[in-house]
Design brief:
Elements: H1 18-27, E1 31-34, E2 37-38, E3 43-48, E4 51-56, H2 71-75, E5 81-91, E6 97-102, H3 103-113, E7 123-132, E8 135-141, E9 144-149, E10 170-178, E11 184-187, H4 195-199, E12 207-216, E13 219-225, E14 228-232, E15 243-252, E16 257-264, E17 286-288, E18 299-301
Parallel strand pairs: 4-6
Antiparallel strand pairs: 1-5, 2-3, 3-4, 5-6, 7-8, 7-10, 8-9, 10-11, 12-13, 12-15, 13-14, 15-16, 17-18
Length: about 300
């Protein structure tokens, strides 16, 4: 059975023998190789075991054949691992053999056999491909893109998606929603633990590293874990993203509050917390961040439109 992965995580076709490539063709296996050029005929070129691989523009991505994909989206594949299925071996006008490749076919297989079977609340591996101010775009399989909005990255306030993830990083996400065209909106905060799960790692009296997230008149919010922030005294000379050390004065589950005292404002280093997953697979129907005692309730309901018709 075909296993669908994010681009960059398939077998490298350039390292396979002719016999292995023939077997991959017969089995319809998705492979990958580094695109070496985007030529004047608007096709990507590859080298597979001493034989050219040619990917016509219409086969470079889903929608390329209908004009829905611009040249820039294809030419930026040059120098990068690109997945495909080998549709066969052909000969050019000079009688030279080449493999005909199709990334669009690989994406179609991935969508029909994998992504179309998923529903909101399902958890899947992703790879961050690029970052914008409003969120991060992620490869959810064979280069198919989905958006991870900034407000779905953390319960704690962050000023940039780069505060949480980086390009090329492999992460886990849950499907937040899906539109009529099948495009996913992703979320990660529900996998990073509830208030109680995060707070359990800390105790009053400890001094820990924190990251300044926002500065208000009434205090400074400092993140001490990806889904947990506390409030320290107001410090207008600090800036969001700055690393500080903080003393944990008290932890109040009934109010979901952590009182902090800033100890060192000049750590002189950039810091970003590693993602710690409390959920690593399967499906989530409902997630409650808040403690049972708290009046403020932060809840995510993962609704499947097909399962809950109006």
């Amino acid at each position: 059975m075909q296993s669908f992965r994010t681009e960059g995580n398939y077998r490298d076709a350039s390292r396979l023998s002719s016999a292995e490539l023939r077997a991959a063709i017969a089995g319809g296996e998705i492979l990958q190789s580094t695109a070496l050029a985007f030529d004047t005929q608007r096709q990507l070129r590859f080298e597979l075991g001493g034989v050219r691989g040619i990917m016509p523009f219409a086969d470079c991505a889903e929608g390329a054949g209908t004009g829905a994909v611009r040249d820039i989206a294809v030419l930026t594949r040059v120098g990068r691992a690109t997945c495909f299925v080998i549709e066969g071996m052909e000969e050019d006008a000079q009688g030279r053999p080449f493999y005909r490749l199709s990334r669009a076919r690989a994406q179609q297989m991935c969508r029909e056999e994998y992504l179309d079977t998923l529903v909101p609340g399902d958890i899947l591996p992703c790879t961050v491909t690029h970052i914008e101010s409003f969120g991060a775009f992620c490869d959810v399989g064979c280069g198919i893109s989905a958006l991870l909005p900034i407000d779905c990255m953390s319960v704690s306030r962050i000023s940039s998606p780069a505060d949480r993830v980086s390009v090329g990083q492999q992460i886990l996400c849950a499907i937040r929603s899906r539109d009529a065209q099948g495009r996913f909106v992703l979320t990660i905060r529900e996998l990073l633990g509830t208030w109680a799960e995060n707070a359990a790692a800390f105790s009053p009296g400890e001094t820990v590293v924190g990251i300044v997230r926002s500065i208000e008149e009434y205090g400074t919010f400092v993140e001490i874990a990806p889904n947990l922030a506390g409030l320290a005294e107001s410090c207008p000379d600090l800036r969001p993203g700055q690393a500080v050390s903080v003393y944990i004065k008290s932890i109040l589950p009934e109010k979901m509050k952590i009182k902090l005292v800033i100890v060192n404002r000049s750590l002189g280093q950039n810091h970003r917390f590693d993602l710690q997953y409390f959920v690593t697979g399967g499906h989530i129907d409902r997630w409650v961040y808040s403690t049972p005692e708290s009046k403020k309730q932060i809840v995510t309901e993962f609704a499947c439109p097909a399962c809950n018709p109006a």
